């Protein structure tokens, strides 16, 4: 493969982000010429006095198609960055299983969580809303909102419990990772695999967004089935960073999430010191606006599964541990069809957020930065305004524009945390929105 050079070698973390395209590819990249060994993974001596270290995201014996690992060539191996760890307060971060409070079995919705004035890093500002499954059993997920008002300085983090999906809603994030630098802003996402160290910085204003911890199988592209080879999310639009390293001997705090708790140690140097790497286990970003949606072009409303960007498979074929689904700009053209999502009950539980714009099934009350929960086998669907409007609107081709909503959908019931239950932003009457729907039944009039 072609060796990709970063724009500026990052000896002191000064590199600008550079990317390689393609989902799940076997990449190779070096920040210094010749840092990657040729024809072998762990030579007796590495160039530049580097150490070889393998990071595995799957069992060694996993099938080739699902085997994930990368070789890192770094200034010091991770074990050299190990010190005396002390457990620290996890704040409002929770891990499944978590049963802090019982909530009524009804739809739930919240207004946006305000961004505080106090200084909070991304890690300190993580607020868990729901948990599902069991992290120790490597199944399920947690849905969070994050609020961050300051960059992490002389501090890095990695999550040993889960892969992390970040969905910015307000403000940009720069993720300085072991593999290179990733910049994301609202409309983009980033995925950081479990075990990958990173530092979260704020290039500009304070940031707010959503995060999903995936305890199960790694997120991957869904099968297209009868759709064929094109549309949905295309592999070429996923970007993986080129190598950029820090050779910085300075006190650095490393925080690790392991077993549902946070642990911290003090290091003498930055652990973001990977000079070169190759493999297919790496962080990546994706611009949601590059998603190519498909839909019905004659009649009926298709299942929301057609909007799946990424999926975490389970041991049951066709049943996801997590689906990451979006509702982007798109044309609505179906004839004689109720175009918004129909009323339904299903076995998946849905945590939904709105990045920007308006969601067509909830034109009132669901605002950017807000979020909702519709749990498995509990009824949900459009509110009265959406139903009346869609039932009586002239069905001309109509384009939904300037909108981006998403779902973290899982086969497990999602349990609400005490923090989320007691938020003043929870809309107390939302669970009764269905009671406002009027009776239209008339046995003497068959015509709709």
UniProtKB/TrEMBL annotation:
Catalytic activity: homogentisate + O2 = 4-maleylacetoacetate + H(+)
List of residues binding Fe cation: 344, 350, 380, 398
Presence of the UniProt keyword Metal-binding in the record: yes
Names of the cofactor(s): Fe cation
The protein's annotated pathway: Amino-acid degradation; L-phenylalanine degradation; acetoacetate and fumarate from L-phenylalanine: step 4/6
Annotated Homogentisate 1,2-dioxygenase N-terminal domain residues: 19-288
Binding sites annotated in the UniProt record for homogentisate: 359, 380
Superkingdom of source: Bacteria
EC number(s) recorded for this UniProt protein: 1.13.11.5
GO biological process: L-phenylalanine catabolic process; L-tyrosine catabolic process
Family: Belongs to the homogentisate dioxygenase family.
PANTHER family membership: HOMOGENTISATE 1,2-DIOXYGENASE (PTHR11056)
Name the UniProt record assigns to this protein: Homogentisate 1,2-dioxygenase
